[in-house]
């Protein structure tokens, strides 16, 4: 070793004792300057160096007194250098860790153990460096210290991993619960919580509470964090959880932060719809309506998680050309699982179905394990063709014409385990005996099959070992809530007038509406009769009512009049990089942007500017008489989306000979202003024009009450209306 360099490094190591000791003693009073915070965040990068250096050194130290190693000066000096470098880098890592731990959001048991085991690693490495040259430092002590250091490194790494990746990160695949059956699955526990644990809990757990937000249990999730509630039940567009996920990934408020695993489209959809469904912590998936978006996606994800039961089938793979030949316009044939010879068959064209179509499958009858005939006009006699599929274990006969009499044809099918009979017309008498004749049947679905609750209870008692899934039975004591009304118009933007088309998927529903901004009720509000004609901008508030049902939530529909549509339009200034939409065409394409950040309309229909004015020029082949201009904009103060500071409307009959027609300053929202999609604009003296220029200036400085105060606001607009 270079004695001069060694001396300097030893002095640095000695000085580090005092500095680390000072930091630990006065840690509670430390205020880390802003300039040192980046140094603290390098902790997670640097910590790999002492781990590698010390593990290698401990391996060499363990064998130090073996054979020729104890007399090999190069071996001994290299080990000494490794230990010194490991001790120095661990000292720096400890210092950086102390700085990092002073940032908000860190705490708990994992941090405690990670901190003190890290300090112990640093001290033991330093101690080993000083004592390993002593005469009394012999083989047994060398092995003990080497093993102790290795264990310390493993433990400090484990608790550090818990801080960055969440508890049980290493053992998670082994500890993960098995897939939950659909009928037992809870929306929050089995679908929402796993998403939070996978993508959010690493930063929001008892040991690392970023933003004072804890996401490990329902009570903490409902409580929210430093910036307030995590969600507004029923209103995903106002919920911080959804808003943050939809920010640009470059935005510092985007969650999960850049560098962390991001939410998939399905996960984001699931979180959004869960909030829309009032963010229940106890609701089951099967409690949701069969056509509910949350239920459909939940069913898909649960099925994906459980996957088909892939077995080691003892039959050969079907001929590929035969499978292709049998797949056609009324029937699909696909692999039941990857790398499996088993096949799944689905009939989907009701008009094309005939019983002999089943017989056509005889060439692959030995490979079919799943068959769906749902909603086909299947008769009892057709089941004789089904029985030839010797390896069939799943049969879907939902909404067919089979009865308990025809089910006797399935007797003796040894591998049939799941039978779906929902929506059929069954009688309790004889059904149990038909099911018992299928020796290995495990589950049968009979909801909406003409069986009473008592019938299903009796059937379950008779079919020991077979799960009977009966679904929801309405006894009148638990009325259901209606879905909100729907608008049927292809577009709610019109020229001269429009007849509003409102509807509801349930027959016999009465739609009540108001046009004055009041909430519709079931007694005084007007009944929609299909003849509501509109000739100006109108907001319709609606609710659905039906005897025996709970009235729906309110649904509002905005209709906009845009009499003149330009023949061409061009932008003279660039749009914001992430809000391009369809360029100048965006403002006159009849496609409205959405509140819902999970909708394609959020990303595709909003055009915006931040760092420059929006300057749009439109042209008409024939002159028009213009008296008003309106812009449909977005206001979402939480994410820095504000109305423009000023809008100017210019007109001309000759190109570039502009005349100012109007200018207006929209009101700037106050703190806690709700998320809205307002119209802003002005009416002015009618002017003949062939060219219209719109100049919209984004808000130069966001108000002082906002976290982004004094920064430029984002301005978003989806449609412009000329009248």
- Report the count of strand segments: 25
Mean pLDDT: 82
Numbering strands along the chain, what is their spatial order in the largest sheet?
A: 3-4-5-6-7-8-9
Query: Which structural class matches the secondary elements?
Result: alpha+beta
Shape: flat
Contiguous low-pLDDT stretches (5 residues minimum) are none
Rg: 35 Å
Distance between the termini: 87 Å
Number of helices: 19
**How much helix, percentage-wise, in residues?**
25-40%
Strand content: 15-25%
Largest sheet: 7 strands, mixed
Domain Cytochrome c: 179-279
Transmembrane segments: 12-36, 42-60, 81-101, 113-131, 143-161
Keywords: Heme, Iron, Membrane, Metal-binding, Transmembrane, Transmembrane helix
InterPro entries: Cyt_c-like_dom, Cyt_c-like_dom_sf, Cyt_c_Planctomycete-type, DUF2231_TM, Fn3_assoc_repeat, LRR_dom_sf
């Amino acid at each position: 070793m270079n004695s001069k360099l060694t001396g300097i490094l030893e002095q640095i190591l000695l000085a580090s004792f005092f500095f680390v000791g000072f930091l630990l003693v006065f840690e509670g009073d430390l205020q880390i300057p802003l300039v040192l915070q980046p140094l603290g965040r390098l902790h997670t990068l640097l910590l790999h160096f002492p781990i590698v250096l010390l593990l290698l050194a401990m391996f060499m130290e363990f064998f130090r007194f073996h054979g020729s190693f104890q007399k090999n000066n190069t071996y001994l000096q290299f080990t000494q250098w490794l230990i010194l470098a490991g001790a120095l880098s661990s000292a720096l890592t400890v210092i950086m860790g102390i700085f990092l731990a002073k940032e908000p959001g860190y705490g708990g048991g994992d941090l405690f153990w990670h901190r003190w085991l890290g300090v112990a690693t640093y001290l033991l490495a330093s101690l080993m460096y000083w004592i390993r040259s002593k005469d009394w430092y012999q083989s047994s002590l060398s092995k003990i210290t080497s093993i102790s250091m290795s264990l310390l490194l493993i433990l400090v790494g484990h608790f550090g991993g818990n801080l960055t990746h969440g508890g049980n990160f290493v053992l998670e695949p082994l500890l993960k619960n098995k897939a939950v059956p659909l009928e037992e699955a809870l929306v929050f526990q089995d679908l929402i919580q796993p998403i939070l644990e996978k993508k959010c809990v690493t930063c929001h757990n008892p040991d690392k509470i970023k933003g004072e937000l804890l996401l490990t249990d329902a009570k903490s999730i409902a409580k929210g964090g430093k910036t307030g509630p995590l969600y507004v039940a029923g209103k995903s567009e106002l919920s911080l959880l959804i808003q943050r996920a939809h920010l640009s990934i470059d935005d510092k408020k985007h969650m999960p932060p850049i560098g962390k695993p991001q939410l998939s489209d399905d996960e984001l959809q699931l979180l959004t719809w869960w909030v829309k469904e009032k963010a229940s912590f106890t609701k089951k998936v099967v409690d949701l309506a069969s056509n509910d978006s949350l239920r459909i996606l939940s069913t898909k994800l649960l099925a994906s998680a459980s996957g088909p039961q892939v077995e080691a089938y003892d039959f050969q793979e079907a001929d590929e050309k035969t499978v292709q030949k049998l797949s056609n316009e009324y029937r699909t044939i696909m692999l039941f699982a990857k790398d499996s010879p088993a096949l799944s068959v689905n009939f989907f064209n009701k008009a094309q179905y005939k019983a002999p179509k089943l017989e056509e499958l005889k060439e692959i009858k030995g490979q079919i394990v799943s068959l769906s005939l749902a909603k086909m006009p299947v008769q009892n006699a057709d089941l004789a063709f089904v029985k030839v599929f010797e390896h069939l274990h799943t049969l879907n006969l939902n909404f067919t014409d089979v009865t308990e009499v025809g089910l006797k044809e399935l007797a003796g099918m040894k591998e049939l385990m799941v039978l779906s009979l929902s929506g059929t017309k069954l009688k309790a008498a004889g059904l149990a005996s038909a099911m018992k004749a299928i020796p290995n049947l495990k589950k049968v679905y009979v909801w909406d099959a003409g069986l009473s609750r008592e019938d299903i209870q009796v059937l379950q008692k008779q079919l020991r070992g077979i799960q009977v899934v009966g679904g929801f039975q309405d006894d009148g004591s638990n009325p259901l809530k209606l879905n909100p009304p729907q608008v049927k118009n292809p577009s709610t933007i019109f020229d001269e007038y429009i007849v509003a088309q409102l509807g509801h998927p349930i027959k016999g529903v009465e739609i009540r509406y108001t046009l004055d901004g009041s909430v519709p009720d079931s007694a005084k509000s007007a009944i929609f009769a299909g003849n509501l004609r509109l000739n100006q901008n109108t907001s319709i508030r609606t609710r659905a009512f039906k005897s025996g049902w709970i009235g729906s939530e309110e649904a509002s529909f905005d209709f906009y009049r845009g009499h003149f549509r330009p023949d061409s339009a061009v932008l003279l200034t660039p749009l914001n990089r992430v809000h391009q939409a369809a360029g100048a065409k965006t403002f006159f394409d009849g496609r409205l942007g959405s509140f819902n950040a999970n909708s394609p309309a959020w990303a595709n229909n909003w055009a915006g500017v931040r760092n420059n004015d929006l300057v749009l020029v439109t042209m008409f082949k024939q002159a028009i008489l213009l008296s008003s201009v309106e812009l449909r904009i977005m206001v979402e103060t939480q994410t820095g989306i504000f109305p423009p500071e000023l809008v100017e409307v210019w007109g001309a009959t000759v190109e570039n000979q502009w005349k100012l027609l109007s200018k207006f300053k929209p009101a700037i929202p106050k703190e806690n202003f709700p998320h809205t999609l307002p119209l802003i604009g002005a009416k002015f003296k009618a002017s003949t024009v062939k060219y219209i220029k719109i100049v919209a200036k984004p808000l130069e400085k966001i108000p002082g009450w906002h976290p982004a105060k004094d920064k430029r606001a984002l301005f978003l607009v989806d449609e412009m209306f000329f009248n």
